[in-house]
Write a structure and sequence with these properties.
Helices cover 30% and strands 19% of the residues. The protein is α+β, with helices and mostly antiparallel strands and 598 residues long. Bound molecules: ligand LR7 and manganese (II) ion (MN).
């Protein structure tokens, strides 16, 4: 549900965001997409006939070019498409079970090397910056509850691989009383047998929730700086130096890396645009565009950018400063709200919160949170009430107006936090809104004000989000090989979630597809083919890739592979009206398809 809150699309962000200028686009994004385009290069399909997944030549062709390998510091990159392929029913079981517990694809995580290549998503100007070598050293705190072990260990190795030794004091893993069998023991023995001396594993005595688990971890830490990370991330090259530099400049600077996207279904790593943190009156965090003019010169893309709030999971703070401003509110439970609380507190009590564009860390953005709170409490509401009552003065009424039943909810005792606010002589919330977040829309705003605020966060340029794949067959029918049957929507194309069936090939719009540069197969220029169990469906294009991302050869006799599902398009029977199904690609009776240009 975080997914709906943030309305993430393929880049993890709402469509409304600007792509941050020509510079970012031409430089980083374009480099990545040129690289990606090789994957779908038409000539490649011609050269490599045969089964796209068992074909050695194809697998070779999909491996990164030498140059990228070198950049990866000799970390091996395995091809995600090769790894995602579900080989048999046992693997399918592992994958399904993993989705239930972790809400991401553990089959890929297990097969993917613990040291892997990820693209360097920084603006190229970042590479010209030389940082002081005499920087403070950091304790990295990672709390986890039932994290999948390979994903957690990849997090740890990415840090060990990409952080200069002298800047890394220790990595503190806090197991928040996980109840997954063997998880704690597995991690413990891995650390020991691999002699990961800087990694320290702790366990809380009961389930604390991420807020108290972080306080617990921070109290074990010895480094001058604390870096908090989620347990399913991969840090990118040069991520640490710019964070520490900014904190060394000023102790009260709290800094965040750009959060790149690791796709939960495919583990593909992709770049995020520069956006800042905001919130709405339901006290939900949201991403938003940078104020107009923030990025006007090339240098602006590497300078720190002030942000009204943080997403919560990934930031660095001077350890002493963290203690001085009151750590976290220990009365908050499990998940939610602490990110706005610490953001308000930092700004209102004299600090500053900044995004550091040259520091990049990928995060697995899950479509849902796979755990709840032990007693079923709505901890987001509980925690938000504490934020509102401690920090928001009269503005808390806007929150209460959005949550009619909040008035009756017991949020515990907040006197010590109110006391803290007094002792720190913090500014009031009105000051915060006027000085730090003047763009926030107030329910009381008149039309004129609204217009002004909207235009302040307007984007300069739109990303062409949904473009047709160039250099490819424009429109085509998909015919079952050695038949005269084509794929068609079972119902009218306007119906969402329609199944797909085989019907005699005729050139009606219900059989005409095109393919986008995101490897989507779009029917009647309207809906995307989406893998689902057991039958694929037609669904609104969400641009997240994965279950709407397909691979096939051009021309004839090709299987059609789905990247998120790791399985292939098949049919129940070779007959009119037979329904399409997802099948193991290794099935000896797997259907192949002809792409007929129309
Ligand atoms: O009871 C718990 N105990 C824990 O130790 C619950 C969770 N955790 C751990 C968990 O294993 C993970 O490592 O805490 C971390 C965060 O939990 P997630 O990954 O389920 O949270 P999230 O990524 O969905 O949510 C975001 O908002 C949270 C609000 O409480 C936290 O601040 C998360 O750290 C935060 N994540 C990010 O900011 C990453 C970017 C996502 C966005 C936006
Ligand atoms: Mn997370």
């Amino acid at each position: 549900y975080l997914y709906t809150q943030l309305s993430i699309n393929s880049n993890g962000y709402s469509k409304d965001f600007t792509s941050n200028s020509e510079i970012l686009r031409n430089d980083v994004v374009d480099k990545v997409s040129k690289f990606k385009r090789k994957y779908v290069d038409k000539s490649y399909y011609k050269k490599n006939q045969g089964h796209p997944f068992n074909n050695k030549a194809l697998v070779e062709r999909l491996k990164p070019v030498e140059k990228y390998k070198q950049e990866a510091n000799n970390n091996v990159e395995k091809d995600l498409f090769e790894l995602g392929l579900v080989q048999n029913v046992e693997e399918q079981k592992i994958k399904d079970e993993g989705y239930k517990v972790h809400a991401y694809n553990i089959l890929i995580s297990n097969k993917l090397d613990l040291h892997r290549y990820i693209p360097d998503t920084r603006n190229s100007l970042c590479k010209n910056i030389s940082y002081e070598t005499n920087l403070p050293s950091a304790s990295i705190i990672i709390c986890f509850f039932n994290e999948h072990n390979t994903t957690l260990l990849r997090t740890v190795h990415s840090i060990l691989d990409r952080t200069p030794d002298n800047l890394l004091n220790e990595i503190i893993l806090v197991d928040d009383y996980s109840d997954l069998k063997n998880l704690h023991e597995d991690i413990e023995s891995y650390i020991k047998s691999h002699k990961l001396n800087k990694v320290k594993l702790f366990k809380t005595e009961r389930r604390e929730g991420l807020i108290r688990a972080r306080i617990f971890g921070s109290q074990k830490a010895k480094g001058e700086v604390l870096v908090f990370l989620d347990s399913h991330v991969e840090v990118n090259r040069g991520w640490m130096e710019p964070l520490l530099t900014r904190i060394k400049d000023k102790k009260s600077n709290v800094v965040m890396p750009v959060i790149d996207i690791i796709n939960p279904d495919t583990f593909a790593y992709s770049s995020s645009p520069l956006v800042r943190g905001g919130f709405n009156w339901g006290l939900h965090f949201k991403w938003e565009n940078l104020p107009k003019g923030t990025l006007s010169k090339p240098e602006d893309f590497v300078k720190s950018i002030k942000s009204p709030t943080m997403a919560g999971g990934l930031f660095a703070i001077n350890r002493k400063y963290f203690i001085d401003i009151g750590e976290y509110d220990a009365g908050m439970n499990i998940w939610g709200g602490e990110n706005l609380e610490i953001s308000f507190r930092i700004w209102m009590c004299g600090g500053s919160l900044e995004l550091i564009p040259c520091s990049r860390v990928g995060h697995v953005f899950r479509h849902r949170r796979p755990y709840g709170s032990p007693d079923g409490e709505d901890t987001m509401l509980h925690n938000s009430l504490r934020v509102a009552n401690v920090w928001m003065d009269d503005y808390k009424e806007y929150f209460y107006n959005q949550n009619k039943h909040a008035k009756d909810v017991n949020f515990g005792d907040v006197t010590s936090r109110i006391q803290l606010r007094k002792e720190l002589k913090c500014q009031d919330f009105d000051w915060y809104l006027k000085n730090i977040y003047p763009e926030l829309i107030l329910p009381s705003d008149d039309e004129e004000r609204l217009k002004k605020k909207w235009s302040a966060l307007e984007h300069d340029k739109y990303q062409p989000w949904h473009s047709r794949k160039r250099n490819y067959i424009d429109e085509f029918q998909i015919r079952l090989k050695n038949s005269s049957l084509c794929i068609q929507s079972a119902k009218d194309v306007k119906t969402k979630s329609s199944l797909l069936v085989l019907r005699p090939c005729i050139k009606s719009k219900n059989q005409i597809w095109y393919e986008t540069d995101k490897n989507e197969l779009v029917l009647a220029q309207l809906l995307c083919l989406q893998a689902a169990t057991p039958n694929p469906i037609l669904y609104k294009c969400h641009e997240l890739g994965a279950d709407q991302e397909w691979k096939h050869k051009e021309g004839t006799n090709s299987p059609i592979y789905n990247l998120g599902a790791g399985t292939c398009l098949g049919v129940s029977k070779r007959k009119v009206n037979a329904t399409l199904e997802m099948k193991l690609c290794t099935d000896p009776n797997l259907s192949t398809w002809d792409f007929i240009n129309v």
